[in-house]
Every structure is written in structure tokens, then in C-alpha cells.
Specification:
The protein is of the alpha/beta class. 46% of the residues lie in helices and 18% in strands. It has one domain: 3-Layer(aba) Sandwich (Rossmann fold), CATH 3.40.50.720. Bound molecules: NADP nicotinamide-adenine-dinucleotide phosphate.
């Protein structure tokens, strides 16, 4: 059990988005088990499991796809950070959802909402917390996806949101490296969570190679090692390594071929 430190500074307050299920809930579980046990505040539309609330996790209900909703909860987040001011701050941008189908057949409103949640909310929260992060030290963990490394036909908007997160996250890592704020981009492959149900499938349409707990274990180890990016899982690392060597148009066609084999939701 490690304690949660950033540049040798103890983290006293963690703000996580999407802790009501999947990878976000595993982040809550993993951080709750750390030695120093920092205070945790979750932002999502529904509450995390009661066991986490009983263990002191603060929940702030918020639809992060709506900018005004984020502004509405800022005072509550600031109050939480002020109550736990004896160390640094960690922001985990994890909330997100995907969709499946050709762009022209999809709901435009849903795709715009995906951009608002997967991209805009991450920038919004990081921007609002940045003065505190720089003043107190700490970090940001951005949950992207292996979808960030190539265009993803039939998941065009989703893949593009994750490419944004990947590029933005690495740039922030560099900008903030001497300011006591470390930034990690997490790139999981298919993981057993509610993700596929939220994307419209009854059950996962592809084999999910891993669990949320394993993704978070590897992510936390990467954060402790001060890494800027982690692709979780051996086969995902292999896949990303190979596809990075291929021309982009070929990779797009290969990725389209694979994604077309998935049966429609
Ligand atoms: N599972 C995978 O295969 C996989 C692979 C690569 C990357 N990822 C990424 O991992 C992250 C977590 O997803 P997951 O797999 O854990 O899926 P999940 O179980 O569906 O969890 C998604 C989380 O996002 C929250 N969320 C959704 N819409 C929201 C909104 N409008 N406002 C606030 N929170 C919202 C949900 O909470 P509420 O519904 O309570 O709001 C939920 O806690 C996502 O960014 C996803 O893109 C997942």
C-alpha cells in the first residue's frame, strides 16, 4: 500500500468524475486503500455505491456534459478542497461515454453531448482547478482510451474525443512538469464496465480483456512512477506499438474493418 504522493508531496484531496461505476469506482476503491487515505469527492449524475459514501466519499451530483452545471458545483468543489487543504490535489477526469454506428446515422445531439462530456468537461474542470493545483501541487489523471491512437470508423466522434484528450494531456504534462503538477494519460482497451451498455449494446460486443480494477492498478503504478502516458494491458501495448508504425490511412482502414465486424447495438 503506497501513500498518494506527487513530487514528494502528499495528496490530501481527490476529485474524481464518474465514480458511480466502472473505472471511476475502481479509482475510488484503489485510493481508499492507500495509506494516507486522502479525502475523495465524486462528480457524476448518480451516487457512487453506498459503501463508498459510508466510508466518507463526498458526492456532488452533476451532469458534466452541461457547462452551467459545472459552474453551479464549483463552490461545492472549492469548499471540499478547502476542508482538505493539508496537501496536494488530484483531479481524475474519467467520466465518458461512447457510441457505435456511422456518423450520418447517429443522433447529432448525442455526439455533441459526447464531445461536451469527454472533452469539454475535462478542460473545464482542469481549468477551474488549475490555480489550486499549481498552488498546492498535485496531478491530473485523464482517462482516454486505446481509441486515441487511430481514427475509429463507426466510433468516429468517440475516437476523436479520446485523441484530443491524449494530445492535450501530453502537452499539459510538459507545460506543468516544473510546476509540481504531474499529468497522466491513461489508455485502456476494452474493459468490463457499463461502457458498452451506455453505448447502446445489450452486452459487450467484443471480448473484454480486462477489469476496471486491473486498469486502475496499472494506472496508479504509472502515476507513482511519474509517467506521462500508460496503455494498460500487454496486448493493448503490442497493438498500439504495431499500429504506430503503419501509415495513418492504412490504420484507419484496418480499424474500420475490425469495428465493422461488431454487431449493431
Ligand atoms: N470500458 C471500456 O472498454 C473503456 C475503454 C477505454 C476507455 N474507457 C473510458 O473509461 C472511462 C470510464 O468509463 P467506464 O468504462 O468505467 O464506463 P461506465 O461504467 O459506463 O462509467 C462511466 C461513468 O461516467 C459517468 N458519466 C456518464 N455521463 C455523465 C455525465 N453526463 N455527467 C457526469 N458523469 C457522467 C457515469 O456516471 P453517471 O451515469 O452516474 O453520471 C459513470 O460513472 C470513460 O471515459 C471511457 O471512455 C472505457
Amino acid at each position: 500500500m503506497n501513500s498518494l504522493k506527487c513530487a514528494d508531496k502528499k495528496i490530501s484531496a481527490v476529485v474524481v468524475t464518474g465514480g458511480s461505476s466502472g473505472i471511476g469506482e475502481s479509482f475510488i476503491a484503489s485510493i481508499s486503500n492507500l495509506e494516507d487515505n486522502p479525502a475523495i469527492c465524486n462528480l457524476s449524475r448518480t451516487e457512487p455505491a453506498k459503501k463508498w459514501l459510508d466510508r466518507g466519499v463526498r458526492h456532488i451530483s452533476c451532469d458534466l456534459s452541461i457547462g452551467q452545471e459545472i459552474e453551479r458545483v464549483v463552490p461545492e468543489i472549492q469548499a471540499f478542497l478547502a476542508e482538505h487543504a493539508d496537501g496536494g490535489v488530484l483531479l481524475i477526469n474519467n467520466s465518458g461515454f461512447g457510441g457505435y454506428g456511422e456518423f450520418h446515422t447517429q443522433s447529432l445531439r448525442r455526439d455533441l453531448s459526447m464531445i461536451d462530456l469527454n472533452v469539454r468537461a475535462c478542460v473545464h474542470l482542469a481549468g477551474l482547478l488549475m490555480p489550486t493545483l499549481i498552488e498546492r501541487g498535485g496531478g491530473i489523471i485523464n482517462v482516454a482510451s486505446t481509441a486515441c491512437f487511430q481514427p475509429t470508423p463507426l466510433m468516429a466522434t468517440y475516437g476523436a474525443t479520446k485523441s484530443f484528450l491524449h494530445s492535450w494531456s501530453l502537452a499539459l504534462s510538459d507545460e506543468l512538469k516544473d510546476k509540481g503538477v504531474r499529468v497522466l494519460c491513461v489508455c485502456p482497451g476494452p474493459t468490463a464496465t457499463n461502457f458498452f451498455r451506455a453505448a447502446g449494446f445489450k452486452e459487450s460486443p467484443i471480448s473484454v480483456g480486462t477489469t476496471a480494477d486491473k486498469v486502475v492498478d496499472e494506472s496508479m503504478r504509472a502515476f507513482f512512477k511519474d509517467k506521462w502516458i500508460v496503455t494498460t494491458g500487454f496486448w493493448n501495448k503490442m497493438g498500439v506499438g504495431i499500429s504506430s508504425k503503419l501509415p495513418k490511412v492504412l490504420v484507419t482502414k484496418l480499424s474500420g474493418g475490425t469495428l465493422r465486424k461488431i454487431r449493431q447495438p
